[in-house]
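Hello Y.,

Per our agreement to keep a running log of every chain we model this quarter, I'm adding this entry. I've kept the format consistent with earlier entries: sequence first, then predicted structure.
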Amino acid sequence: MRARLGILPVALVGVTGCGLRPWTPSVSVAFWSEDVPALREYEVPSSSSLAARWQLAPESPWARYYKGTLVSAADPMAGHAALPDVQRLEVAREAAAAAAHVAAVGLPADTLWIVDLRGAASAAFAARLSRDAREPIAPVVTFNNWPAHDGLVPADETLAGLIAFSPRLPPPEANALERAHPVFLLDSWRLAYRFDDPGDETFDNRYMLTPTDLPDAETLRARAVTRVVYVVEDLDDAEVEEDDLHASFRAWQAAGIGIAVVDLAFLKTVPAPVNGSWPVDWAARLAPRGYWARERYTLVDDPYFYARARAGFGLAFGRPFIHPGYRWGPGRPGGGGGGHGGGG
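Predicted structure for the entry above:
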């Protein structure tokens, strides 16, 4: 098991006097989540083979948002690795169950999905949804860091999720690519431990997404997307969207795009269509979960966060520490390695 840094209570006053910091998915995942699952031996595909499982065809309108950073960490593992057994992760099972139910009742039209769970659970959600849904699903991987045995967040867990759970990609025909439902996969670990100083001996492999990593309002309107559904693990533990999404949420709502925030329990209880009609009336179902992103001070604005961070976030040392020939797993020569930084 990987030891975790202790985190301070989230109800801290911001150093700028901007008030209490609210719960976001990265706060709750570090505060409440179970430890990383026990390791198991994996046959690790090449980076190109793993990318082929997850990367949309270039003709897809959502293909340009794909990030292959974490996928590229597969090659240095040379075909074999000890990685977390993510199939034993409860949230991954819950995510798959929620996705199966959504597929059964039918997906809402004209909707962009943002799935902000532990990375392995986001992969499990997309894999199950794409395999069970009547319509094609376009999963978009946004994982932008590297694993490290002494990394601050468990990117190896997310990589294991990409290996263990495989989606059914839309067929290459133009019509299927055009009508595929976009489902963006985020890792809620990406900004965890925000109030801690990781220390010089820790690989700070956290990262932020920027507004350019997500479709802007004009792109969504051009694709006839009128609604964003933001999926978190538990609404009791996530009051607002993650800080690096705040600018996008504000821009979308300013353009008249509706936002709903839901959790896995909500998705598992969406009622089946009445009298066999399909799909369910999602507008009515999501109305009580409508969300308005109020302007607030975020981690993106906090210079003290960057001062505590150990590289990454556009600063120095944003380079991987693994290379071909390293053996991945505890006690092995070379020790694996990770991203000191890892995106931004």
